[in-house]
Write a structure and sequence with these properties.
Shape: globular
Radius of gyration: 19 Å
Strand content: 25-35%
Number of helices: 1
Order of helices and strands: HEEEEEEEEEEEEEEEEEEEE
């Protein structure tokens, strides 16, 4: 039996690609971002407020898929961008990045769908007030170093201090990360634990006992 030809994509797909291109150019031209690199692609379904754009910085060739939320919590200080996405970062569908202080994704960071990154939390210390009116905690800072891969449903939370995910690390699906890990780590679980590390001498990933 002869191989069947691969069907062409729906022509309407070209329309959605064109809309994405126009939307990205519109954002870059009219939103006061802290930085907007070359060939940035942002789907029209993404939730990014013009009022917080000055707290967001994009490197070159950043891609934001459908239904992504970038949230920069307003504060009185002016210490630079709160959300920094380095060159070639690719963010999957339905991801959320919410920063009060600073969340940095270095170059070539890759997110699967439904990843949540937050450097703060809702305040809930006053039991006589609704949580929705108590604001947010002081929080900390999060750095995801270059070439990290975060699997489906990963949650990274930092309530205080510095949380760093070392370069070339992998976080397994549905893991909850609340502390730092060194470069070349594979981590998984809730709470996330180190399960493998890369051995440069043997040039392979070694299981952690």
């Amino acid at each position: 039996m002869a191989n069947k030809p691969i069907p062409m994509e729906d022509p309407l797909f070209l329309f959605s690609r064109g809309l994405r291109w126009l939307h990205s150019r519109w954002l870059g031209a009219t939103y006061p971002f802290a930085g907007f690199g070359r060939h940035v692609s942002i789907d029209s379904s993404c939730d990014i407020l013009r009022s917080t754009a000055r707290d967001i910085q994009f490197g070159d060739e950043v891609v934001l898929a459908n239904d992504i939320w970038l949230n920069a919590v307003p504060t009185t200080d002016n210490s630079g961008p709160k959300i920094i996405l380095g060159n070639h970062c690719k963010i999957g569908r339905r991801c959320s990045i919410s920063a009060r202080n600073r969340i940095t994704l270095e170059d070539d960071v890759l997110f699967a769908p439904s990843v949540l990154i937050m450097d703060h939390n809702h305040e809930f210390s006053d039991i006589d007030l609704p949580i929705r009116v108590q604001g947010v905690t002081a929080g900390g800072r999060i750095t995801i170093e270059k070439n990290c891969w975060l699997g489906y449903g990963v949650v990274v939370l930092c309530n205080s201090g510095e949380l760093t995910m070392g370069r070339n690390s992998v976080i397994g699906a549905n893991s909850v990360v609340t502390k730092s890990f060194p470069p070349f780590s594979i981590i998984a679980g809730n709470p996330a634990k180190l399960v493998r590390t890369y051995d440069p001498k043997e040039k392979r990933w070694i299981k952690v006992l």
